[in-house]
Amino acid sequence: MISGPPAAGKGTQCERIVEKFGLIHISAGDLLRAEVEAGTAAGKLAAEYMNKGQLVPNKVVVDMVKHRLAQPDVQDQGWLLDGYPRSADQAAAILEEGIHPDVFFLIQVPDEDLIERVVGRRMDPETGQIYHLTFKPPPKDTLKRLIQRSDDTEEKAKARLEVHAGNVASVLDYYQDVLVEIDGSQDIGAVGSAIEDVLDTFQESSSLDEFQRQAEASSA
């Protein structure tokens, strides 16, 4: 599992993890939208709540997550659950279903740095490319057409950070045994290396465990 506040670079790190380790990236939000679009039983039920402006019950989302994690590709390659669970109720619900990560990454970045990242973001409406006025300056010939997303203001960024902090605080008790905090104020490569070092160690440990099990089986 991986969690991080808005603008912490979680999306970039998910891409790196998937590319290097071949895990199946699962976002509860994307999964929910896909089920609704596909018109599955769970998707139709979720759509009923969404059309009424109500939150989709935990059980519906948990069932979707559980079903996705049971698919052959996930069973074969492993999973990366992104930004979920977001509440103690959700954490308890998936734990009851036997869903528990080997590692829970929490990317930490000071709020003032996050706000600077958010407020300085600009998007090119023609290409969809995201720039930052300080950290990833856009080409001069695109400056005039760049736009700022409506929620990329300091006021809204602070509100989103407060929501995230509350969400994380409510679930950490469930994952203290596998929690790994990552300093997200470093550059992208350093953050990625810190995450990959942990996963490399775990992968090596898992390989040794499997080797030991095979050795014991062959000598039995």
Describe this structure in words.
Helix 4 crosses helix 6 (88-96) and helix 7 (111-119) packs across helix 8. Strand 5 and strand 6 form a beta hairpin. The chain is mainly alpha-helical. It is 55% helix and 12% strand. The protein has nine helices and seven strands.
Keywords:
220 residues, ATP binding, 7 strands, mainly alpha, adenylate kinase, EC 2.7.4.3, 9 helices, nucleotide-binding, three-stranded parallel beta sheet
Annotate the secondary structure layout.
Elements (H helix, E strand, L loop, with lengths): L1 E2 L6 H12 L2 E4 H11 L2 H11 L6 H12 L2 H6 L1 E4 L5 H9 L7 E5 L2 H9 L1 E3 L6 E3 L21 H18 L7 E5 L4 H32 L1
Q: Tally the helices: what do you get?
A: 9
Strand content: 5-15%
- Spatial extent as radius of gyration: 20 Å
Q: State the end-to-end distance.
A: 36 Å
Share in helix:
40-55%
- The H-and-E topology, N to C, reads as EHEHHHHEHEHEEHEH
Reported for the largest beta sheet, the result is: 3 strands, parallel
Helix-strand makeup class: mainly alpha
Low-confidence residue ranges: none
Strand order, main sheet: write it out.
1-4-7
The mean pLDDT is 88
Q: What is the number of strand segments?
A: 7
Question: How does the overall form come out from the CA principal axes?
Answer: globular
